[in-house]
Amino acid sequence: MSVLEKMSSAEAIALEDKFGAHNYHPLPVVLSKGNGVFVWDVEGKKYYDFLSAYSAVNQGHCHPKIVGAMMEQAQTLTLTSRAFYNDKLGVYEKYMSDYFGFDKVLPMNTGAEAVETALKICRKWAYEKKGIPENDAQIIVCENNFHGRTTTIISFSNDENARKNFGPYTAGFIKIAYDDIDALEKAITASKNIAGFLVEPIQGEAGVYVPSTDYLAKAKALCEANNVLFMADEVQTGIARTGSLLAVCGNCTCEAKCEKQASYVQPDVLILGKALSGGAYPVSAVLANDSIMNVIKPGQHGSTFGGNPVAAAVAMVALDIVSEENLAQNAKALGQLFRDKLNEYIVTSSIVKLVRGKGLLNAIVINDTEDSETAWNICMKLAENGLLAKPTHGNIIRFAPPLVMTEYQLLDCVGIIINTLKEFEK
Ligand SMILES: *Cc1c(COP(=O)(O)O)cnc(C)c1O
Hints:
Blueprint: H1 2-5, H2 9-19, E1 31-35, E2 38-41, E3 46-49, H3 52-55, H4 64-74, H5 89-100, E4 104-108, H6 111-130, E5 138-142, H7 151-155, H8 160-163, E6 173-176, H9 181-189, E7 194-199, H10 215-225, E8 229-233, E9 269-272, E10 284-288, H11 290-293, H12 309-324, H13 327-346, E11 352-358, E12 361-366, H14 374-384, E13 387-388, E14 390-392, E15 396-399, H15 407-422
Parallel strand pairs: 3-13, 5-6, 5-7, 7-8, 8-9
Antiparallel strand pairs: 1-2, 2-3, 4-10, 9-10, 11-12, 12-15, 14-15
Bound molecules: pyridoxal-5'-phosphate.
Pyridoxal-5'-phosphate binds next to helix 6.
């Protein structure tokens, strides 16, 4: 390991370039350590992490409680497969059920697997409960969605780069405009064979598009009226990121699901991933009530690692932290401060057109064409100035720091961002 310890950034990048598939285009920064809101590169330079592994590290890097729980469980029992019971899974499932307010949970590992799981549950429910003729079920999705990378999921993406030459595509999906309730009503009432509506409560990958305030509530009402499952993909927006436990909680900042809040929109199927483990381990989950979840019988779905004892131990602690450290409230307050400060700056800026977002899931839109290098160059400069962020879709830069950030740190970061942007003003 001593050779690795002395490795320079250039050497590490050269290794990935030569021996790794080129399925990502990273910023040229090689990280070797993380703690809270900070990461360090192999040369020892310290950065604020303003991506949080696409909102997986909401609880901060290497949170001692998560690391502790993971180590303890790793030394005791790591994997039994679901061929046998283990003493952690049931405890975890009850914890999840109480925390989010659903009868049951189906544990998986990655976000894409959880989305696949939801789609399978939805189709099976459609045939066995709703009575749609076999193989005729249709699921409505939104334009510019991001739900992961499997063959089925990219089948209903409209990102050409993510889709092209991966066909033939999975059938059974209808794409409509996002945040367009009339389009949903039209699609949902056009056919008797609509099984579900799969939606991101805020479109993260697309560039942090926050829908109109009543969009989710109206969408849910339409689903209910037409016996269609409302499936919320909260892989990115969930676990306090947007200033509430879930984005479907609306303006409620309590740390656990609260049915009494008028703003809460109860999904029929809830999809979680990313920060469910605080970024320590791949943990994802699908939650639903019995009338839906019970369509899945032994042998019909599964995963060797899904629901393993380490995942269970890690996820429970990761969710404890969300409550104990008031991460939803913090995300809400700091997110407001972040947008206020950037909005003040934008008034006099020629390089930034707007800032948008909710809680600590935000983005700025750079005043340049989508195929320009400007956003990338700004991110390179931000890195130089000690803050890591990444463009999403050309001219948009997403800002999503760990939710354990303090106000002092956030203002420090706003300073770095504004000073960097000033270098690009014409
Ligand atoms: C990241 C993401 C996924 C996919 O999660 P993976 O763990 O990368 O498979 C699915 N849906 C949304 C909204 C995401 O942000």
